[in-house]
Amino acid sequence: MNAPAQTYSEIAPERLLEAANAQRAAGSRLVQICCSRLQHFELLYSFSRPHTIEHLRICIPDSRVALPSISSIYGGSFAYENEIHDLYGITFTGMNVDYQGHFFRTAIPAPMAVPPVCAAPAPKPNKPQPQKEPT
Amino acid sequence: MANRTVIPFGPQHPVLPEPIHLDLVIEDEHVVEAIPSFGFIHRGLEKLVEKKDFTEFTFIAERICGICSYIHGMGYCQAVETVMGLEIPERAKWLRTMWSELSRIHSHMMWLGLLADAFGFENLFMACWRLREGILDVIEETSGGRVIFGAAKVGGCRRDVPDDLLARIPAQLNAVEDELRAITNVFRDDFSVRQRLCGVGLLSRNDAYDLGAVGPMLRASGVAQDSRLDGYAAYDKIAVEPIVEESGDCWGRTMVRIREIYQSFDILRHVLPNVPPGPVDMKITGAPKGEFFARLEQPRGEVIYYVKGNGTKFLDRFRVRTPTFANIPPLLKMLQGCQLADVPVIVLTIDPCISCAER
């Protein structure tokens, strides 16, 4: 398999624009932006150029933390940012196209922002072994 | 200055196969702006991964969309297998390649029919869909399903294909290909078809790249990008040349898809006699722990599957970035300034799949 190498690096939210500018200067293409609701919110910005895919990870404690939009650098990022805003409730400042929460029609606001369901069953306690009575 | 009018387009519209809604801001007959909205068929499938065993989730991944169902299942499995460090059997890789290319042919043939319907050529629409049945028959014979293949599995393939059946398929494909040439000649040469497609929905090379276009949209604007070059499944043993057109209009996107159909026939003629003997799946032990982005080439373009496992049988996160979603910003760019009558054709040429885009 000739799949390009994938690298992950974590950056602070305030360094996002600087990092996106660096990717743009290197000729990278914005592949996607993914938001994950773990115990915190995790955003992964993926950039690719031939033989390389780089993922920039940003962790924020809750959805009230606003992030800068990279749509001034990558014009197509507004679709991902509006999607994340509508499904997770995270605000992006300075979007080139802001649909004000009307990009995804959701019955409830930010439906994906609820913490993950802990579906793994709790481990069963060890059954106490019956003690054999001495004969 | 002419008055501006807002025309709602979709989610139900005679020429729109998918439930997307566009508010078209019109000045005279020209579109000034298109404002999209989604969510009519959002099913929360990504969230469902928290409640389903990672092996069972393959069935749900295959049901994200009815057209590229197999590649959705395969991409999910490939991402999980990479996280778990599994090297699936060689025969499974070749069978996956075969089903991927069959998916591409039937998806593109379906799309050609829908495009013909969008510009009002009913006979061409029916001819495309009639011929597509021949490919669906091959898919049914090999996988058991016509829409949902049900053949993907973490660790390989859910079912094997007998060698005598593999030997029979090329003759069936040749018959379809021979008939298809007559149909694609109409798309290439018919005056009225060219009138509706040439110079309509222009997307420059720079706009396509900057706005994140993928698949035939990107390649029709002159960018040679095809994820099959990454060499997943058995593509590392097959020479795949990205099909590129330079015109960047609806005509170019049509030509890219037509040429990709013939390219897929050629790939299948190479794959089918070379499927190696051996098992098609392997035993899985343990659970995925770690994360990976798998990148595949669907008929509609590059698709991304992100899997994050925590070492239990329930994944923390599964994410699909579908080609339709990536092609929305370029679509909105193309619609600016176009004629109202061209809107259905332009929307069709991104090959929209909203059930993919909404998940």
Number of strands of chain A: 6
- Proportion of beta-strand residues of chain B: 5-15%
Name the helicity range of chain B.
40-55%
- Runs of chain A with pLDDT <50, length 5+? 119-123
Give a quick precis of the structure.
With 135 residues, chain A is an alpha/beta fold. Helices cover 16% and strands 27% of the residues of chain A. Mean pLDDT of chain A is 82; it is low at 119-123.
Write the topology of this structure:
The complex is a heterodimer of chains A (135) and B (359).
Chain A: E1 5-10, H1 16-25, E2 29-37, E3 41-49, E4 52-60, E5 67-68, H2 77-88, E6 92-93
Parallel strand pairs in A: 1-4, 5-6
Antiparallel strand pairs in A: 2-3, 3-4
Chain B: E1 4-9, E2 21-27, E3 30-37, H1 45-48, H2 57-62, H3 69-84, H4 90-118, H5 122-143, E4 152-153, E5 156-157, H6 163-189, H7 191-197, H8 205-210, H9 216-219, H10 250-271, E6 289-298, E7 301-310, E8 315-321, H11 323-326, H12 328-335, H13 343-349, H14 354-358
Antiparallel strand pairs in B: 1-2, 2-3, 4-5, 6-7, 7-8
Descriptive account of the structure:
The complex is a heterodimer of chains A (135) and B (359). Chain A has 135 residues and is α/β, with parallel strands linked by helices. Chain A has one domain: NADH:ubiquinone oxidoreductase Nqo5 subunit (Beta Polymerase, domain 2, 2-Layer Sandwich), CATH 3.30.460. Chain A has helices at residues 16-25, 77-88; strands at 5-10, 29-37, 41-49, 52-60, 67-68, 92-93. Chain A has a 4-stranded mixed β-sheet with strand order 1-4-3-2. The radius of gyration of chain A is 21 Å and the shape is extended. By secondary structure, chain B is of the alpha+beta class. Helices cover 47% and strands 14% of the residues of chain B. Chain B has helices at 45-48, 57-62, 69-84, 90-118, 122-143, 163-189, 191-197, 205-210, 216-219, 250-271, 323-326, 328-335, 343-349, 354-358, and strands at 4-9, 21-27, 30-37, 152-153, 156-157, 289-298, 301-310, 315-321. Chain B has a 3-stranded antiparallel β-sheet, with no helix packed on it. In chain B, strands 6-7-8 form a 3-stranded antiparallel β-sheet. In chain B, strands 4-5 form a two-stranded antiparallel sheet. In chain B, helix 4 packs antiparallel against helix 10 (250-271), helix 4 (90-118) packs antiparallel against helix 13 (343-349) and helix 5 (122-143) runs antiparallel to helix 6 (163-189). The interface between A and B is large, with 36 and 42 residues.
